[in-house]
Design brief:
Strand content of chain B: 15-25%
Strand content of chain A: 25-35%
Largest interface: A-B, 37 and 37 residues
Radius of gyration of chain B: 51 Å
Strand order of the largest sheet of chain B: 2-1-6-5-4
Largest sheet of chain B: 5 strands, antiparallel
Strand order of the largest sheet of chain A: 4-5-6-7
Oligomer: heterodimer
Helix content of chain A: 10-25%
Number of strands of chain A: 14
Order of helices and strands of chain B: HHHEEEHEEEHHHEHEEHEEHEE
Structural class of chain B: alpha+beta
Distance between the termini of chain A: 50 Å
Distance between the termini of chain B: 36 Å
Order of helices and strands of chain A: HEEHEEEHEEEEEHEEHEHE
Structural class of chain A: alpha+beta
Shape of chain B: rod-shaped
Shape of chain A: elongated
């Protein structure tokens, strides 16, 4: 009985785990403004029409319809009148009446974002742009607001599951014998509070789990004391456990694993590595040999 | 589990709780308030920093003019010094600068960002990732009602703060463990010391049987002294009871032997005379023997009633009885005796009374009283029987103007075999058990009986019984 219970819990836990890695964007929904007008809420919705223009009309209608629940505010207020639209080359142009300029401040930003995000869910729309009549919408500074794509928004920050991002990184892992480097392009998930440099270092401490025997260049008990970037140089400070780590990877390989991975990032050209603290007993204090300024070195790369 | 009823254990648990609970509360309160204090002060620091940067951004026109190298560098270095990140947006909530270089150009829709754009500072403690995140509007600090130019978001790593809190928590935990251990030891000792007199009390009671001590003492607490005194008192009562039992047995033997002795004397006399005894003497002595046998029989019968009364507490045959009729019946039965003694019998009933009584035993009790009133009276005297009641009790009074009871005797009249004025004990027949039987019967009914008398003038017996018989009653 307890074994079955344990198995059930295990299955649920792993199921929950895998769900947490990917933000739940699977279902189509309408973006509403929340009751306190401080953010957006997505409510599931099933589109009725099939013809594209009807779909857009339907969504515009919904976005303008008042909701009976105080928790949700329809993004397009009724006072704005009718909204015309053009769809060409996956770019949706929404033309509003001049009344649109009555929307100001955060309300306008939320309205625009809710409408855009709703339409960007459709396969055939990859950008949305707002017009007032025939003129593109301008911001307070007089500049055009421009087209909005799905990359134009930063929805949330800080809370664990929802703030997961993913990006492609070029990582350099150690070969099985610990001497050479294996280059891997990887899609990595990370919390958007981390800097890209931290992401690189975090994943360098984990085996990539591939068949070619690639392994981590950093041991998990090596503490990254700080990693900051300035003017194209990334300053990495590691604690002395780096010198005594038992990963089976040669120190030089580990160093260039770090350097090459970091310099693959757009803004980084060089890496300044420094070791701080006293190494464990019996380890030759190689601090001077390891610390220093490094540039990308492909010589160790075997694959 | 007999262990769970131990007073010592309860003391111990209580002392333990009383010591540990406050320690727990204090530790918890201290740690949580320390943490929140640390967080608050960090938030303040961040807000100050953001305020300074905002001021520079406004004065330099960073948001209007776009790139300004100095500002960018400063944002980056400040963010690094806090091991965090700074993001600045314009009034459209578009990210103008992200020190991590990830989100430039995006519209920042996070709730705290929107709230900041509406003019309010926010703070958020992301415990999972160990970050403090604050957002604040970028506006001119000096003027009132200035427009909001954009917002600034700043994060700070709380790892060092958390390790500080953890350190304090660990110390708190160690202290708590020390307190618990100390309190456990202390409470064990104190509780043991507190209950020791109780153990001593019970062993001195146990020892009472072995030694010749007649009482126990315990001066440890007033409570144990109270117990010791009650015990001694009870012991005393038991002894008195024991003594009176022995006395009773010897009285019984005596009372039973006396008639037999008389019979023996009479019989021996007749035997000794042999054939010379005249018929009249035989007749006289036989009459005397018969009298003695009657007396012995009555004594034995009375004893049996008494014993039956003792045993039959559970066997009361309670019926709803009209007491007035019961009394009339008794008086009718005693009329001949009263006539013989030349005593007037009068009954006075104030109201009809119905009560739950055992007819047989109650009649016996009242009959004894009235019989005594007749016997211990003079010719021409009277006996008054009155009956009354209130909502709870029935009151019966038996009053006579006979010989009365002396002051020394009146305390003993209800004792078994007590015959009062010794000079009359031969003239007036009786076994000395009548009043004892009466008292037993009245007590069985949970009633009360009282006597008052003046020697030479008369006696009054007052009986009170409850109208309804209730089984369980405490305290005789």
């Amino acid at each position: 009985m307890t074994i079955i219970l344990g198995l059930v819990i295990l299955i649920c836990a792993t199921a929950g785990c895998s769900q947490a890695l990917v933000a739940d964007n699977s279902s189509f929904g309408i973006y509403y403004i929340n009751g306190s007008q401080t953010g957006l809420e997505k409510i599931e919705y099933t589109v009725v029409s099939d013809v594209t223009s009807d779909v857009i009309k339907e969504l515009l209608a919904i976005l303008s319809t008042e909701v009976l629940d105080d928790e949700y505010i329809n993004p397009i207020p009724a006072e704005l009148g009718t909204v015309d639209f053009d769809l060409a080359d996956n770019n949706l142009i929404l033309r509003f009446e001049p009344e649109y300029t009555q929307l100001t401040g955060t309300r306008e930003i939320l309205t625009r974002s809710a409408v855009a995000k709703t339409f960007l869910q459709l396969d055939y729309i990859s950008s949305v742009v707002f017009y007032i009549g025939d003129e593109p919408l301008k911001g307070k500074d007089g500049n055009v607001v421009g087209a909005m794509t799905s990359d134009s928004f930063l929805d949330t920050f800080g809370e664990n599951e929802e703030a997961l991002e993913s990006g492609t990184f070029t990582m350099y892992y150690s070969s099985e014998d610990g001497q050479g480097l294996i280059k891997k392009k990887r899609l990595l998930h990370f919390n958007n509070t981390m800097s890209k440099e931290s992401v690189v270092l975090t994943y360098l401490a984990r085996d990539p789990g591939s068949d070619d025997g690639a392994k981590a260049v950093l041991s998990p008990n090596v503490k990254v004391l700080s990693v900051t970037s300035k003017d194209g140089i990334c300053y990495v400070k590691l604690d002395a456990n780096f010198l005594s780590q038992q990963t089976g990877v040669a120190t030089e390989t580990a160093v260039y694993g770090i350097v090459d991975s970091l310099t693959s990032l757009d803004d980084i050209g060089k890496v300044e590595l420094s070791i701080e603290g006293t190494p464990a007993e019996g380890v030759v204090p190689d601090t001077d040999k390891v610390s220093g300024l490094y540039e990308k070195n492909d010589s160790l790369v075997i694959k | 589990m007999k262990f769970s009823k131990s007073l010592q254990l309860r003391f111990m648990l209580f002392l333990l709780g009383a010591g540990v609970l406050p320690a727990l509360i204090i530790t918890f309160v201290l740690i949580t308030s320390y943490e929140s204090q640390m967080i608050s002060s960090e938030i303040r620091r961040l807000n100050v920093q953001v305020g300074l940067l905002s001021g520079e951004i406004i004065t330099s026109g960073y948001l209007e003019n776009g790139e300004a190298e100095g500002i960018n560098a400063e944002l980056t270095s400040v963010a690094d010094s806090y091991a965090g990140r700074i993001m600045v947006t314009d009034e459209e909530l578009r990210v103008v600068k992200d020190t991590y270089g990830m989100y430039d150009g995006r519209i920042f829709l996070w709730e705290n960002a929107v709230i900041a754009m509406q003019g309010e500072n926010t703070s958020y403690y992301d415990r999972d990732n160990s970050f403090l995140i604050i957002t604040a509007p970028i506006l001119s600090q000096s003027e009132e009602n200035t427009p909001i130019h954009g917002i600034m978001m700043m994060t700070e790593s709380t790892e060092s703060l958390e390790s500080g809190v953890e350190y304090v928590s660990n110390i708190g935990l160690i202290c708590l463990i020390v307190v618990v251990l100390l309190m456990a030891a202390l409470s064990g000792l104190v509780s043991g010391w507190l209950v020791r007199p109780l153990h001593e009390l019970s062993s001195s009671i146990n020892d009472l049987g072995k030694t010749n001590e007649s009482s126990i003492t315990s001066n440890a607490y007033s409570e144990t002294r109270e117990i010791a005194e009650s015990f001694n008192h009870y012991q005393q009562m038991m002894r008195v009871l024991d003594d009176s039992r022995q006395e009773f047995v010897s009285n019984v033997s005596h009372e039973l032997k006396t008639p037999l002795a008389s019979i023996k004397v009479l019989a021996d006399s007749i035997n000794m005379m042999g054939d010379d005894a005249p018929i009249e003497m035989y007749r006289e002595f036989m009459g005397d023997i018969t009298t003695e046998v009657d007396r012995e029989t009555k004594t034995i019968n009375d004893l049996l009633s008494l014993v039956r009364m003792d045993k039959s507490k559970a066997d009361l045959n309670i019926t709803i009885t009209n007491i007035n009729e019961l009394l009339e019946l008794i008086l009718k039965r005693l009329e001949p005796l009263a006539a013989k003694q030349e005593v007037e019998l009068v009954m006075e009933s104030f109201r009809p009374v119905t009560a739950e009584v055992d007819e047989v035993k109650f009649s016996l009790a009242i009959m004894n009283l009235i019989e005594n009133a007749i016997k211990y009276n003079n010719a021409g005297g009277w006996v008054h029987v009155s009956i009354n009641s209130d909502h709870q009790y029935c009151f019966i009074r038996v009053e006579d103007n006979g010989m009365g009871i002396s002051e020394e005797a009146i305390g003993h009249v209800f004792e078994r075999f007590y015959r009062g004025d010794k000079s009359h004990s031969r003239e007036i027949s009786g076994t000395g058990l009548g009043l004892a039987i009466t008292r037993e019967a009245i007590l069985l009914h949970h009633g009360e009986i009282r006597v008052s008398s003046v020697q030479g003038e008369g006696t009054v017996f007052d009986v009170r019984i409850p109208l309804s018989y209730i089984e369980e009653r405490e305290g005789r």
